[in-house]
Amino acid sequence: MLVALVDTLKQLRYQIAHLEDDTMQSEYPELATFIQQVGLTVAESKQELVFLYQFLYVYGRKSEATYNRFRNELERFYLWSWLVAEKSVFELKREDIEAYVDFMVEPDKSWAMTSVQWRYKDEQGIRRLNENWRPFMLKESIASQQTLAAMFTALNVFYKFAILEEKTFANFVPVVKKNSPYLVVQSQIKIPDTLSDIQWEYVFGVTRDKCEQQPDLERNLFTLACLKGLYLRISELSERPQWSPVMSHFWQDNDGFWFLRIMGKGNKLRDVTLSEDFVTYLKRYRLYRGLPALPRVDESEPLVHKIRGQGGMTVRQIRRLVQQSFDLAKQSLLDDGFTDDAEQLESATAHWLRHTGATHDAQTRPLKHLSEDLGHAKIATTDQIYIQTNIKERAKSGLKRKI
């Protein structure tokens, strides 16, 4: 039976302690039994698992999203190494890594699930395994370029860390990646995923129009304004262990300009500028919540509130709000005959709103200003993603050439 090796970020320190104190059997009975049954010795399995936990603690404690990405990639790598290759992860050679990549591209169907499943839950003080959990999601097509890139990144970082900790002296991942037949060299032209003008008009407009009949949609409207108008990542708007976005993070300077202080990737603080249009929707949202029109420096109200319960919203909850607005827009697009736009909206995610806002504003704002509001460490990143001027000029110059 396949067993989830790693629990949530919150439980990670407890798992480390249970392994070190030899109390895993009483707290994680299914995992303890699994450790006894794999091909390695019990001591080796425990040592490797402790190392995995320590790696995840070092690299994942700053961000739960980062933790989840590394956990998912390395957990299935460990399981493959132990159950398929029947080797320690530190004994794997180049050909083994290549075999794992083949497995990633086409995993055994018994390793895949059709829907997202929880791993463990409390049952009378014991963390019980969900037997329906599997390391992969069942897909009709082979692994995407993004999935393979994430896998190579996770393995490369893991083995670099292992070398520093003197657990191994070789990292075969870069050479396997360089020669992988599954990776495709990206085109020079890489346009970010964005909503079309009409899709954005419907997503925002339909939500706004329905607020009169459904006042709680004011929360959706404000969320859309933040993600598109301030170029926020959805994680930057959500409640996190290290950061709780609250209304006092809005602030005004001596010249009357408004900013929002947020914590971005790598726990880096930045101040995003607010447009006059955004301030209008900020006032609207605050009045709906029964607050004064503009924020004060001492306000502890969450930025995006829960209808029930205390505190701010999680990434998953905010994603649901965005999806609700997407669904409303899709139906209105279909009703008005815009079938193609409605169908394309099905694949949209909340992150498209950040790209939509930045792509639109790149036509009018200085690149440096846009880059700083986006939170990019390098201005070249903004240029590469959002500035398509050279591509368009190249297309124009080649338009009249003769055959």
From TrEMBL:
<keyword id="KW-0233">DNA recombination</keyword>
<dbReference type="InterPro" id="IPR011010">
    <property type="entry name" value="DNA_brk_join_enz"/>
</dbReference>
<dbReference type="InterPro" id="IPR050090">
    <property type="entry name" value="Tyrosine_recombinase_XerCD"/>
</dbReference>
<dbReference type="InterPro" id="IPR002104">
    <property type="entry name" value="Integrase_catalytic"/>
</dbReference>
<feature type="domain" description="Tyr recombinase">
    <location>
        <begin position="190"/>
        <end position="400"/>
    </location>
</feature>
<protein>
    <submittedName>
        <fullName>Tyrosine-type recombinase/integrase</fullName>
    </submittedName>
</protein>
<dbReference type="Pfam" id="PF00589">
    <property type="entry name" value="Phage_integrase"/>
</dbReference>
<keyword id="KW-0229">DNA integration</keyword>
<dbReference type="InterPro" id="IPR013762">
    <property type="entry name" value="Integrase-like_cat_sf"/>
</dbReference>
